[in-house]
Amino acid sequence: MTPKFVVLGPPGAGKTTVGLLLAERLGVAFRDTDDDIVAAAGKPISDIFTDDGEPAFRAMEEEAVAEGLKGHDGVLALGGGAVLSATTRARLADHTVVFLNVGTAEGVRRTGLSTARPLLAGVNPRATFKSLLDARLPLYREVATIEVLTDDLTPEQVVDEVLRPTGPAQGT
Ligand SMILES: Nc1ncnc2c1ncn2[C@@H]1O[C@H](COP(=O)(O)OP(=O)(O)OP(=O)(O)O)[C@@H](O)[C@H]1O
Ligand SMILES: O=C(O)C1=C[C@@H](O)[C@@H](O)[C@H](O)C1
Ligand SMILES: [Mg+2]
């Protein structure tokens, strides 16, 4: 059993929104490792960060991704920071991996109203988002087989790009 598509990218890129639509379009199940972690821990991600710390969260995430890659054959969305793990990046080899990219301005706009993302909860979300994106961009690209810049696309259009027979249009 292996996912048809693994979806990743920074917070607000649309992993959950687009992942669900993509699964609907393909008639397959959708799974999100953030949800698996919340279910396993019995508390929200913000509480895991506060009570147990980020390293504990990353260990749970590594396990959740490994389980998802083994046990799910639909669309699997990963948490925004899952690629920080070299073990996870190695496990993503040979999978079809969609990197949903989003620029800082649009990413901050999309995540701005939520308090559910502990890493973006600081005083300057824009600077935090940009440094997170800068640090992770090479890691997303290391594992991605498809990249879509989502800033000016609706979620439906992002799905269209992912499913284009020749792959997403570049630079248009
Ligand atoms: N292409 C898009 N155009 C406009 N809004 C979008 C698009 N994709 C997602 N959104 C909106 O941005 C917000 C964040 O989307 P979503 O929760 O799917 O992101 P995510 O990548 O799963 O984030 P996280 O890493 O926090 O789980 C939601 O309000 C969603 O409706
Ligand atoms: O970008 C990140 O590091 C995170 C993104 C979310 O999906 C969650 O996995 C968590 O809030 C951490
Ligand atoms: Mg999500």
From TrEMBL:
It comes from the Bacteria. Its main location: cytoplasm. GO terms for molecular function: ATP binding; magnesium ion binding; shikimate kinase activity. Substrate binds at D34, R58, G80, R136. PANTHER family: SHIKIMATE KINASE (PTHR21087), SHIKIMATE KINASE 1, CHLOROPLASTIC (PTHR21087:SF16). Binds 1 Mg(2+) ion per subunit. The keyword Cytoplasm applies. Keywords: Amino-acid biosynthesis, Aromatic amino acid biosynthesis, ATP-binding, Cytoplasm, Kinase, Magnesium, Metal-binding, Nucleotide-binding, Transferase. PROSITE patterns: SHIKIMATE_KINASE. It catalyses: shikimate + ATP = 3-phosphoshikimate + ADP + H(+). Pfam families: SKI (PF01202). The gene is aroK. It is found in: Cytoplasm. Mg(2+) binds at T16. This is Shikimate kinase. SUPFAM superfamilies: P-loop containing nucleoside triphosphate hydrolases. ATP binds at G12, A13, G14, K15, T16, T17, R117. Its EC number is 2.7.1.71. Monomer. Catalyzes the specific phosphorylation of the 3-hydroxyl group of shikimic acid using ATP as a cosubstrate. Pathway: Metabolic intermediate biosynthesis; chorismate biosynthesis; chorismate from D-erythrose 4-phosphate and phosphoenolpyruvate: step 5/7. One of its GO terms (cellular component) is cytosol. Its cofactor is Mg(2+). The keyword Chaperone does not apply. Belongs to the shikimate kinase family. GO terms for biological process: amino acid biosynthetic process; aromatic amino acid family biosynthetic process; chorismate biosynthetic process.
